[in-house]
What does this fold into?
Amino acid sequence: MDSPQAENFITVTEVGPRDGLQSEEKFVPTDVKVKWINRLVDAGVSRIEFSSFVSPKAVPQLRDAAEVIGRAKRCETTTMAALVPNVRGATNAAEAQVDEMVVFLSASESHNLKNVNRTISESLAGFKLVARIAGEAGIPVHGVVATAVGCPFEGEVPSERLVDLAKHYRDMGFIGIGLGDTTGMATPPVVERAVTAIREAVPELPISLHFHNTRGIGLVNVIKGLELGVTRFESSFAGLGGCPFAPGATGNICTEDLVYLLHEVGYKTGIDLEALCRLARDIESHMKRDLPGQVMKAGPRLQARGTDEVATAKG
Amino acid sequence: MDSPQAENFITVTEVGPRDGLQSEEKFVPTDVKVKWINRLVDAGVSRIEFSSFVSPKAVPQLRDAAEVIGRAKRCETTTMAALVPNVRGATNAAEAQVDEMVVFLSASESHNLKNVNRTISESLAGFKLVARIAGEAGIPVHGVVATAVGCPFEGEVPSERLVDLAKHYRDMGFIGIGLGDTTGMATPPVVERAVTAIREAVPELPISLHFHNTRGIGLVNVIKGLELGVTRFESSFAGLGGCPFAPGATGNICTEDLVYLLHEVGYKTGIDLEALCRLARDIESHMKRDLPGQVMKAGPRLQARGTDEVATAKG
It folds into this structure.
């Protein structure tokens, strides 16, 4: 099996169980969540953001985080990461023995206020408390920056702000920085600017990229990230979630489509794409609506088809 | 205004009026077609595949090709191209004074048989007759190869076959060769192989690329085409059409998303993106269903939004 030590290995983080499910209207039963997560583990996904230790009032869909991780299959090759918004969340996450805690703030003050009702300084102060709890439990912390490549309220995000946050993350001992394209504002030049600035200032901090397909170019931005040497990307099964802000708009890039692309351009992920597609189709059935993922619908490119299966092209 | 002579200019062919509408169940009234095409002309689209001079029995949706071009706004900076499947089509297209005729065959025998009920040799023989009619009328001919980067029945398409067809096209005096990704099997390496092979063997024949987003990577393939120096791409308004063969699967890449990407990475198209988005939204309204285009829903990336417009991200 391909391991993270293999050449050309890309770590794909499946954020569906957290980022995909948190915005669903209907609660997905714990049993179902555990089954889906176990199928991700079996398919070889190397990192799963399985839930958020958030207040059940704020995000009732994820109120079962501790039960989910308590019952999910654990395996050495899959990191189980959870979002942790505050000290209480960190305490609960430590108790639940997660592999990694993920903290997050927004690159812009206005988005951070809107999202977590804190200033960026207040968020950073909270991270220190989380980091202490995590440290005592021997659990690494990963820091995310939402709206990292553009804020819907403030526009472009200056590279200096990203660099400043990256330095804070490094100083708190975080194992990496994730750049979140919260409302799909990433473009290849913007990605290049952000990644280059952080890497030059804080070269020891690994960067992961979390793109949305809100303007149709999520996977184009992945290609730019790959060109820049980034080896960690996040995506959601079936393309679920990612707070699309316009009717019909998509959010997170889709894991099956990402893995398909990575394999086709010569990267390894350790992931069984067909198993992933089966899972995505089951999730679509569960949700009872069309989800954005494409490869789960079309199948692998060289799958032979009968001549009655393919509509004519007339060009 | 940006002209095709400008540096970094990309010719975007809007195939929606032909490729998008041909597979719609409902006939789009001629008035509406003409209005949409005129809006494309006004938005600065440099080439429009406005219809097909095909038998009204085969494709009733396009039975008004002659009337459409007779009533549409003509302008020096917009080439009006029409699909021409046979001699009768060519005669009618010449009479209707189209700017360009487009002929097509499939790279694989089985797909060509299924699509046009001819062998590839028979198709090529037919092209000669079309080319003669076009030549007498002083109208250039563009040759398309469908399933150029993969056939759903036969799998990979050998580069030799593409080169052979390109030589035939050159010998018949065609002004270019279009590679059609009929069932969305293109990947960056496959695109590179195809484009490189044709360019090495027939360097004088301009290549245009027509991708589908069936597996989510249509625009990734565009980026590869751009890297290879290709300057002509085809797409459909709102992402309409392109014979998706699986429920929920998408076909043609979307023009607004393509133009958005091209502008963001530094190319010129001469196209007013906002006008294009308004048209795409009107087309979506007309079709009364969700269409795949993303930028028409999300808007330009730096459009300022109120804090109540954007859902929170929670990461």
